[in-house]
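Section 3.1: Structural characterization of target chains.
Under the original work plan, the team committed to producing a structural model for every single-chain target entering the pipeline before any wet-lab resources were allocated. The record below documents one such target. The sequence was received from the expression subgroup and is listed exactly as submitted; it comprises 149 residues.
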Amino acid sequence: MKKVHIILLVLIAGAIAVLISFLKASTTYDTIDSAKAKPGKFVHVIAKLDRTQPIVYDAIKNPNYLSFTAIDSLGKTVKVVYHNAKPDNLEGSERLVLKGDYQNDHFECKEIMMKCPSKYKDDMKAAEKNIQETTETTPAEIQTAEKKY
């Protein structure tokens, strides 16, 4: 074999190793049913807070225990237990990304990522209003404004 062939084989093997490592690191989002089907396996679940059920958190008795009910996009519910402090904007979040595993009768959450409502929604309305106001001005008003600056 020529040296070029050996080098190409090594590069191809390296590329395959890199791709395999990316496949292991990549994550997909599961539903509650699929998380229940994989007990003990670390998964990511996208859900929202069930506001009809109580949130159990007492910072004085146990600041590292939070329990609430989550609903996924298919309408399935699950009790979530999080052994850490309650996130600040839990009630105000639109969606939750729950990272953890399903155990017995609940989802044991290791990390919660909150997807909050966009702060730019109101800004977009203001920008649209601003655009309408500037397009409604007459050329004389624009020239007067330019002279001021």
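The CA atoms of residues 65 and 140 lie 65 Å apart.
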